[in-house]
Amino acid sequence: MNKPTYHELELRIAKLEHQIRQQQADGSAYKRYHELVQYAPVCIHEINMDGQLVKMNPAGLAMLGLLEESDIINTPYLDFVGDANLPTRAIKVAAKNLHSPCMR
Predict the structure, then answer these.
(1) Do 56 and 94 belong to one domain?
(2) Is the domain of 34 the same as that of 68?
(3) Which of 47, 48, 8 is CA-nearest to residue 60?
(4) Mean pLDDT of 34-54
(5) Do the Cβ atoms of 81 and 89 come closer than 8 Å?
(6) Whether residue 5 is found in the same domain as residue 52
C-alpha cells in the first residue's frame, strides 16, 4: 500500500475540517430550534402516527395545568380537544389517515 502524497493529505484534512464545521453548524441549528420550541409562548407538541402525544413544550403543559411532560406521553391528543371541536377534528384526522402512505 502506497503512502498518501502531501497533496492527498492536505485534501483529507480539508475534508475533515469541512465535516467538523458542518457538524458544528448542525448542532448550532438544532440548539436554536430546541430553544425556539422550549421558550415559545404557545403550545407546540409532537404527535405520533397513532394520534398520541409524544412531546410538548412547557407553554403547552402550562396551558393544561401540568408540570411534567411524562403526564401527556402516549395520551391520545383528541383527549385535549374541546367537545365542540371534537367532531371536526375527528373528521380531519380520519381524512388525513385515508391519504396517508401508511394506510395504503
Answers:
(1) yes
(2) no
(3) 47
(4) 90
(5) yes
(6) no
Range of the domain at 11: 1-39
Residue by residue, DSSP assigns 25-83 as HHHHHHHHHHHHHHH-SS--EEE-TTSBEEEE-HHHHHHTT-S-GGGTTT-BGGGGS-T
Per-residue pLDDT reduced to its tens digit, 49-95: 998 999 999 999 998 888 899 988 999 988 877 666 555 555 655 65
Judged by phi (left if over 0) then psi (alpha if -120 to 50, else beta), residue 90 lies in alpha
- What residues does 55 pair with on adjacent strands? 46
Residues facing residue 46 across a β-bridge: 55
- Let me know whether 57 and 35 are in one domain: no
Class of residue 58 by CB neighbours under 10 A (exposed 0-12, middle 13-18, buried 19+): middle
* β-bridge partners, 76: 52
- Do 49 and 89 lie in one domain? The reply is yes
Same domain, yes or no: 69 and 35: no
